[in-house]
Design goal:
Strand content of chain A: over 45%
Radius of gyration of chain B: 13 Å
Distance between the termini of chain A: 37 Å
Number of helices of chain A: 0
Oligomer: heterodimer
Structural class of chain B: mainly beta
Helix content of chain B: under 10%
Number of strands of chain A: 11
Largest interface: A-B, 30 and 26 residues
Number of strands of chain B: 11
Order of helices and strands of chain B: EEEEEEEEEEE
Helix content of chain A: under 10%
Distance between the termini of chain B: 37 Å
Largest sheet of chain B: 6 strands, mixed
Structural class of chain A: mainly beta
Shape of chain A: globular
Order of helices and strands of chain A: EEEEEEEEEEE
Number of helices of chain B: 0
Largest sheet of chain A: 7 strands, mixed
Shape of chain B: globular
Chain lengths: 114, 111
């Protein structure tokens, strides 16, 4: 049973560039979540999907951020025109609908904007 | 964004000692989860709690869902070096599916 995987693990980009991250959830999980974690803080919710449908977006998710889950399996998170404040760990989690709300996290993508 | 209050912020203990940490919220939660995070990795789920007053164990770890539904506690007995890391509580309120995380408790274990 493979866990949640994320790619890439690390990304360094220059301010103003676009970046895209990928998350592959646990295979039978129909819910997928994105969180952001800055140094010294706990993860903060960004958005989540149930199958293909994006059901909730946080106010943290500015217009420069977009997330998709086109086939209800993997998801992508894109950040356009990156800013230094976007530097953080981006975490993906998945859970099973009706599975007692237990969310299982991937290893994260560490983004550094220079 | 909203974060739950965890205490203590950090702990330095000797191997073999027991550890207690807690998490408090200003609002009621329906679910409490405890995670451990190692540097550069994602959080790993340790224990999940679903009912007020519930006490659940996972090996040397025991967690409780507070009766007021506004707090939760995690105890680690007979600590070992691999317990080192940051422990996060996370809560789910109402019908929401997102988790709200605590500020973390950093645990250091000395041999």
């Amino acid at each position: 049973d493979t866990g949640v995987s994320q790619d890439p693990r690390h990304k360094i980009t220059k301010r103003g560039q676009n970046v895209t991250f990928r998350c592959d959830p646990i295979s039978e999980h129909n819910r997928l979540y994105w969180y952001r974690q800055t140094l010294g803080q706990g993860p903060e919710f960004l958005t989540y999907f149930q199958n293909e449908a994006q059901l909730e977006k946080s106010r943290l998710l500015s217009d420069r951020f977009s997330a998709e889950r086109p086939k209800g399996s993997f998801s992508t998170l894109e950040i356009q025109r990156t800013e230094q404040g976007d530097s953080a760990m981006y975490l993906c989690a998945s859970s099973l609908l009706g599975g007692w709300y237990e969310q299982y996290f991937g290893p994260g993508t560490r983004l550094t904007v220079t | 964004g909203q974060q739950l209050n965890q205490s203590p912020q950090s702990m330095f203990i000797q191997e073999g000692e027991d550890v207690s940490m807690n998490c408090t919220s200003s609002s009621i939660f329906n679910t409490w989860l405890w995670y451990k995070q190692d540097p550069g990795e994602g959080p790993v789920l340790l224990i999940a709690l679903y009912k007020a007053g519930e006490l659940t164990s996972n090996g040397r770890l025991t967690a409780q869902f507070g009766i007021t539904r506004k707090d939760s506690f995690l105890n680690i007995s007979a600590s070992i070096p691999s317990d080192v890391g940051i422990y996060f509580c996370a809560g789910r309120a109402g019908f929401a599916d997102k988790l709200i995380f605590g500020t973390g408790t950093r645990l250091q274990v000395f041999p």
